[in-house]
User: Fold this.
Amino acid sequence: MAEEADKDTKTEEATPRRIEEALRKGNTPSSRETISFASIVGIVAALKLGSETITGAPIATLATFIDRPNEFSLATAEDATRVMLDAGLVVGAGILPPLLVLMAAGFAGSALQNTPRIALDRIKPDKSRLSILKGLQRIFGAHARIEVTKAILKLVLLGTIVSIYFHNFRYGILNSILIGPGDIPAFLVGKTSELFLTVAVFLSVLVGADLLWSRFKWHRDLRMSKQEVKDEHKQAEGDPLVKARQRSLARDRARRRMLAAVPKATVVIANPTHYAVALRYVKGEQIAPVVVAKGLDHIALKIREIAELHGIPVVADRALARSLYDVVAPDRPIPTEFYKAVAEIILHLMSRAPAVAAGETRIS
Assistant:
């Protein structure tokens, strides 16, 4: 009941991210009937393409034992082993190509449904697979009932096809007694391939329906609730609360780096209460003064405190401080329109401190 209720809430189609995650874990739409159908087609192809090797090699080997038994020595166990190995190699070489065709058909039946991929999650230990409750759900659940229904339909269809085939072929079976012994294997292989081909033709309808059903069921099982879609959207776009927190942390880090650069400033231009801009100018190091820190309100007060602590001059210029704060970003040189005003301040400070050596980074 809980499972049915849970399915009722999953009304939204799976998102591309949900589908990709399912494929990565090895959860792919797969039709068992398609694989069986491919195997039957492989049997037909193997019998058609390899009928000569399947029947010719064993018969030729057997004929050699019957026609020329004196050529084989069986005096010791080693002789018998050698004869068996030789015969086995001949027969094996004859039936190996058809077996390879059959294996390739089975692999193709799976590969054509989905792109082959390595899914390590499928081989990891999972305690939920040992759950008795889930095992009972698999046995008596809706999916199990559908599988049983398909098996019954397939059994009835196969039984009907085989019965009709042998009914139509009953006279051929009676006439087979007139066939020479050497032609019997080829005759049996040919009729067997005809039977499997007939089965494959009729099963193709069932296989097509099962293929469509398996894909429909896979997409249905991947459906999501509205809440799951919202949660995934948040994860993809970023939770607003988390992003706000990240931005806050980034601002804090930038603020700490900026305040750490204040001791390197040459002068701080401030509005006495609201704005503070710390400038650094070293002759020969840069063309124009660079803003190393700027702040508003309590940050401005913090810049002034650090400047006073390190003996950096603080010049009050309300208009210039506000303009620099609005226009120039930290670690950027001031624009040309501020050259004259800032140069006058620096020259004024230098005139008050004639003992400062050329290129000194700090005016006090």
About this structure: The two ends are 81 Å apart (CA to CA). The longest helix spans residues 184-221. Residues 2-235 form one domain. The mean pLDDT is 77.
